[in-house]
Amino acid sequence: MTDPRLEDSIFGGESQPGEGPADGTDDPGHAVADDRDDGFRPDAEAAPVEDDPESVTGGAPRRRRRWIAILVALALVVAGGVVAVQAIRPIVDSITHRAPDDYAGEGTGQVSIVIKPGESGSQIANTLQRAGVIKSVDSFNDEAAAEPEFASIAPGTYQLKKHMSAKSALTLLLDPSSRAVTKVTLPEGMWKSEIFAKLSKQTGVPLSDYKKVTPVSAGLPKQAKGNFEGYLFPATYSFSPGTPATQQVRTMVTKAVSELKELDIQPADYQRTLTIASIVEGEAKAKTDRPKVARVILNRVQAGMKLQMDSTVHYIAQRRGAAGTSDKERNSKSRYNTYRYKGLPPGPINNPGAASIEAAAHPAKGKWLYFVAVNPVTGETRFAETYAEQQHNEELFHQWCRAHKSQC
To answer: pLDDT of 349-382, one tens digit each?
Structure first.
């Protein structure tokens, strides 16, 4: 007869709670499996028990199905999360300002913007925002960061519009035509008094401001001895509205020094070179004549002769328009009077251009001691080594003057 305690056990050897020792000892209250054939074979393959989740063959598929269900559920959660994030991103961006605010279109009206030298992109953006050109600094910074040409924006005054998109504002800043500038062309050979008068008239800066510019503030080389004459390089300059006189003059002085360095002229020779170049500028019209005039100047200085250049006398009188000089002008006691004093004048008599500076630095080879413009209008010039040759050439000049009395 089967012990009732074994009916709840698969193996028939498991003790129930509270039933005595389970260490295999012969205990009257403990049942031990015997050798009888009760249908259990520990080494034999057991038939699957489908209702038992822990059965050897029936549990694996169920576990796989359970894991698949879990993975599917996780995938749905992730997918749902992505959709949710995309749905709320605009809201989050608007709260955190991740997406820069920007106007649309090319704007309306007109506004002047001043970009100062050395300003950064953020500083420019702040200026634009304060003026109502762009809506946000971030929108402009994003456009500027993507534009390789942004660094080429020059300081100055720009004409833009109100309520522009950042891209449109940047496009106008990169357009040279948007930059408000005053262009001043200074021809070769002008005197500093003429240059300052022209600059004042065209830029609107008072003439008195130019007269107050100091040599130090304009970067004038010490060799000039405080005189700007000769160091205001002739060229076309672009000045933004309101550019002060000091900055204008400094720009021209810097250009003159740059030209001297370009020709490998040493600072100690600046004054001498520009003085010779200024006389060349005042005496020669044709480019091919300039190196010859420079040679005549040097030959006469080396020979201890007076230069006797009309251009130096014209400088003293500050007059233009008529060829030749009067007896009164040639009797001036000014140190610039090369009819009275030997050697070079104290400094330049005008502001020479590149061709005259190069001629002074590299004069032609020759023994000429004289020259005269036999036709002041065309600039035709005759050179001579002897005074007899010069007298013949001067007679040609006098013939021209008799035919053009109003111009002599």
So the answer is: 999 999 999 999 999 999 999 999 999 888 899 9
pLDDT confidence tier of residue 60, bands split at 50, 70 and 90: low
Whose structure tokens read 């059965």?
55
- Which of 230, 262, 294 is a domain's end point? 262
* Residue-level pLDDT at 337: 98
CATH number of 165's domain: 3.30.1490.480
Q: Which domain holds residue 239?
A: 185-262
3-class SS string, 44-101: CCCCCCCCCCCCCCCHHHHHHHHHHHHHHHHHHHHHHHHHHHHHHHHHHHHHHCCCCC
Residue tagged 């007269």 (tokens): 211
Which whole-number Å values give the CA distances from 213 to 5, 219, 228, 245, 383, in the listed order?
121, 10, 10, 7, 41
Last residue of a domain, one of 160, 180, 200: 180
Question: Per the domain annotation, does 97 fall within a domain?
Answer: no
- Residue type, position 283, single letter: E
In this predicted structure, what is the pLDDT of residue 75? 59
Q: Mind listing the pLDDT tens digit for each residue in 237-275? A: 999 888 999 999 999 999 999 999 999 999 999 999 999
Tell me: do 279 and 341 sit in the same domain. yes
Q: Which long-range contacts (CB under 8 A, 24 or more apart) does 265-272 make?
A: 265/357, 265/361, 267/221, 267/223, 268/223, 270/221, 270/223, 270/224, 271/223, 271/224, 271/225, 271/230, 271/347, 271/348, 272/344
d(CA 211, CA 190): 16
Query: Is 37 within a domain?
Result: no
Are 210 and 327 within one domain?
no
**Residue 29 to residue 20: CA distance in whole angstroms:** 7
- The two tokens of residue 190 are 């002008």
Give the count of domains, the chain. 4
User: Do 300 and 398 fall into the same domain?
Assistant: yes
Sequence-distant (≥ 6) Cβ neighbours of residue 48 within 8 angstroms? 55, 56, 57, 58
Classify 26 as helix, strand or coil.
Answer: coil
Quote the pTM value: 0.67
Amino acid at 45: E
Same domain for 14 and 132, yes or no, is no
Structure-token pair, residue 180: 């408000």
Asked if residue 117 and residue 150 are part of one domain, the reply reads: yes
Q: Are residues 214 and 119 in the same domain?
A: no
Helix (H) or strand (E) run with residue 334 in it: none
